[in-house]
Write a structure and sequence with these properties.
Structural class: alpha+beta
Largest sheet: 4 strands, mixed
Shape: elongated
Radius of gyration: 21 Å
Order of helices and strands: HHEHEEEHHHHHHHHH
Helix content: 55-70%
CATH architecture of the largest domain: 2-Layer Sandwich
Strand content: 5-15%
Number of helices: 12
Distance between the termini: 19 Å
CATH class of the largest domain: Alpha Beta
Strand order of the largest sheet: 1-2-4-3
Length: about 300
């Protein structure tokens, strides 16, 4: 497996690159608006300040926002002692701080990790995952999520979620404004048009923005790390097989947060879905894990 320090350094670089790209996009948007409205540098400055605020929130508070969006509730040890025991044993064996533990109350099977560093991290699992997987399979899933925490993947994924989500919100606000605007407001048509063009260009690129910022390779690396942590790749392989067969929809999920989960919450049946999926095909991951056991 790849050197842990190298992976962490790569993820740190990608995190700051993501924040820089968001600043560039909003700065460009502000420049376009300022040029059209003859604001000089006022609009550009305002948008750059806005991008700074978004980056600050994304870096320090993205985990709280994502947990709230996902509907996750904080768990105490006495509520699910078996899960806490699994996490505790893995953390102690791998010299990791114990993360906060959250539950998403749904029959769907999935899990994700979030946080800005190993000392400010959280693992969220669904009720369905705890009910339908064996303790060993749950251990494989938890080890995968702890690997994301160990490598700093979760910070990069969280920052990208907030950045991409904000750009999507701008687009949604624009198109909603168009749908409710009065037909007689012709004097603003030029301004609306230029905003529309800019947002129409940027918003659809948010999915690609995620693709460029986050490599599918991270899932293979986390899978391999989980196999090392548990000393049994078959546990995670079987968990992935069961999760992939689950067709229940996951509530409160969008394409800006889908990459956080251990398995894509969206179906990837067609070739186009597979191209733009933030996860590698589950069967490829299972095959890689099985190869570690000689199966």
């Amino acid at each position: 497996m790849e050197n842990s320090r190298a992976i962490i350094e790569q993820n740190t670089f990608k995190t700051y690159l993501c924040m820089a790209l968001l600043t560039f996009i909003l700065g460009l948007l502000g420049t376009g608006i300022s040029y059209y409205l003859h604001w000089g540098l006022t609009g550009t400055g305002a948008f750059l300040i806005l991008s700074g605020m978004i980056n600050f929130v994304a870096f320090y508070f993205s985990d709280r926002l994502i947990l709230r969006i996902s509907g996750a509730k904080l768990l105490e040890k006495d509520q699910v002692p078996e899960l806490f025991e699994i996490i505790s044993s893995l953390c102690q064996a791998n010299n990791l701080p114990f993360p906060k533990v959250y539950l998403i109350d749904t029959d769907a099977m999935n899990a994700f990790a979030t946080g800005r560093d190993v000392n400010h991290s959280a693992v969220a699992v669904t009720r369905g995952l705890l009910e339908k997987l064996t303790p060993d399979e749950v251990k494989g899933v938890v080890a995968h999520e702890l690997s994301h925490i160990k490598f700093g993947d979760m910070r990069l994924m969280a920052v990208v979620s907030i950045a991409a989500g904000f750009i999507s919100i701008l687009s949604d606000m624009y198109w909603h404004g168009i749908s409710v605007s009065k037909a007689g407001e012709k004097d603003k048509s030029g301004f609306v048009a230029i905003i529309g063009i800019l947002l129409s260009l940027f918003a659809p690129l948010t999915a690609m923005f995620i693709q460029l910022s986050i490599s599918r390779r991270r899932e293979f690396v986390a899978d391999a790390s989980a196999a090392e942590m548990t000393h049994n790749p078959a546990w995670l392989a079987e968990a992935l097989r069961k999760i992939s067969m689950d067709q229940r929809p996951l509530p409160s999920v969008s394409f800006t947060t889908a990459h956080l989960y251990i398995s894509s919450p969206f179906p990837t049946e067609g070739w186009l879905d597979r191209i733009f999926s933030t996860h590698p095909p589950v069967q490829e991951r299972i095959t890689a894990l099985n190869s570690m056991t000689g199966h």
